[in-house]
Design brief:
single chain; alpha+beta; Aminopeptidase; 7 helices
Length: 222
């Protein structure tokens, strides 16, 4: 059995257990990230929204036949609009989860940086954005990342987006290599959080293969 036959990529709708698994994967693989510092309940609320909003999308790679999450990728047609929608629709749940975490001034400041970053981005860059991309270390280089990335790029293409941007940390050399191999072009640097430089890439999107928008839950295509 080839590595690509050992997993599938699925999209919405997601069960509560699947969203919880994505949140655990984020916390485990990005332990030093700001979002991880907010705790798994906040991550679950965030990914539940991204996975159900018309402004965003979430794809998850699951092992076969167990269904164990091996990685995920998520994106937004407009990150600022998605965050505004999140604030309006999820505040009754998110505020009680966030309040205890934001008592620390530094964490509150980083939250404000996160919320204001999308609106302060260069208007010449695409609004469409890859928000997060995680694959478990033991599965890297076995096709999981390629399949997840292909699904997301196809989704953006089906929505008429000509290009998508991604912001990745300066020290994430492996991510830089992946995006460059995938045809992304470097477009400078930015600092989402003060003192932490990141690279900006823009990836052109080919025209959609077929009419319509594929948002139904489906096994991944190679």
């Amino acid at each position: 059995m080839s590595p690509s036959d050992q997993f599938r990529v699925v999209g919405r709708p997601f069960s509560a257990a699947e969203i919880a698994a994505v949140a655990r994967l984020h916390a485990a693989e990005v332990p030093e990230g700001f979002l991880s510092s907010l705790g798994e309940p906040v991550l679950r609320t965030l990914y539940r929204h991204v996975g159900s909003s018309e402004l965003g999308v979430l794809f998850v790679a699951e092992s076969l036949p167990a269904g164990e999450p091996l990685g995920y990728i998520c994106g937004a047609l407009d990150t600022s609009a998605l965050l505004r929608e999140f604030a309006v629709r999820r505040w009754p749940i998110a505020v009680p989860q966030l309040a205890p975490r934001l008592l620390h001034p530094r964490r509150l400041y980083r939250m404000l940086e996160t919320l204001t970053y999308p609106g302060a981005a260069d208007p010449a860059l695409p609004r469409a954005e890859i928000m997060n991309f995680v694959v478990v270390p033991s599965l890297r280089g076995r096709g999981v990342a390629d399949r997840l990335f292909d699904h997301l790029i196809r989704w953006f293409g089906d929505h008429g987006e000509p290009a998508v941007k991604v912001v990745t940390g300066e020290r994430q050399r492996r991510a830089h290599g992946f995006y460059e191999k995938s045809g992304a072009e470097p477009r400078g640097r930015t600092a989402v959080h003060r003192g932490a430089q990141s690279r900006i890439y823009v990836c052109p999107i080919p025209p959609p293969r077929r009419a319509g928008v594929a948002t139904l839950r489906t096994e991944g295509e190679s």
